[in-house]
Amino acid sequence: KIKGDYGFAHCNLFYEDIKGKNIGVENAMPYIENAIDKYINSDATEQDRRVCSDAIHLNMIKKYMKQVYRKDFENNVEYIGGEKEYKRDLNVGGYTVHLFGRLDRIDRVEDSNYGNVVRIVDYKTGAAKERNFNTFEQLMQCPNEGQKSRKNGFENIFEILFYCYLAYNNGEADVIKPELLYLSDLDDRDITM
Question: What are the phi and psi torsion angles at 136 (to 5°)?
Fold first, then answer.
């Protein structure tokens, strides 16, 4: 099992390399391998280098990157950028609260309800978690004493909605679509309420 964002850390290099090019899925592997090599030889941590030097992990990373690209290619996704940082200050009760987030990926996609929209993607490497919630209170439910975080994936939903808030308030787009992309379930990406 791959822990952390291994495999996705390389995706942005891959998408930057093919941006503006019409690369079919069948021709993507050399670009994927090049992105992994670039990552290992530049910003990779020692742990990333160890994971990528293991043939089994490396093949998993390549496989997942190709699956992500296949889905994006089929859905005519336009990559805008990745690892983008946003900041926003809020005044709350006389105090300034500094908000910060680093978005994994920003795309432009066609949405059946809204037309051309900006999509904020948050990569997740663990098992797919709940993507549906009924009320804001359910989303904000605090963990019980002794628990480290919220259960059922609501922390992931909160995180991606927080990133969308930052992107929206920085003028990224009028319509923003949040998307959680789990390695274990690339076909199901939507969040619903």
Answer: -60, -35
